[in-house]
Design goal:
This protein is an all-alpha fold and 122 residues long. Helices cover 71% and strands 0% of the residues. The chain starts with a helix and ends with a helix.
Length: 122
């Protein structure tokens, strides 16, 4: 149990805590949603992208009660909807595209690393 606790504190590459990890996820999704709502670019109006945004937004609202969710469950949820999170990235021409890609890669890497370490510790 102590090893799992140590891993949860040390394995988050960019973020330092569960709360910061959750905040990064929520910020990524909120930023994507804002772009979708304000843009007139047809990139954001496809049925597939809108469905992905709906799924991601559900995760964002679920994470408001993240105090009750174990970090492993949060990581699993992120990886389960990875395709949807990629799908809501801004269009490549958007000035925030590179930053959003970097943020998403960091979130996915942190979630993957945590779950791999947890599996090794078990």
């Amino acid at each position: 149990m102590l090893l799992t606790l140590i891993n949860s504190c040390m394995l988050m590459e960019k973020t330092q805590s569960k709360a910061e990890f959750v905040k990064d996820i929520q910020k990524f999704i909120s930023h994507s949603k804002m772009i979708f709502e304000k843009s007139t670019n047809p990139h954001y109006s496809s049925r597939e992208r809108l469905e992905s945004l709906r799924i991601a937004d559900r995760l964002r609202f679920t994470l408001y009660d993240s105090n009750y969710l174990p970090l492993a469950n949060i990581c699993e949820m992120v990886l389960m909807i990875k395709k949807d999170l990629v799908n809501i990235l801004p269009a490549e021409g958007n000035k925030s595209y590179k930053g959003s890609v970097d943020n998403l890669e960091s979130i996915i890497r942190d979630a993957t690393n945590f779950l791999q370490a947890r599996k090794k510790a078990a």
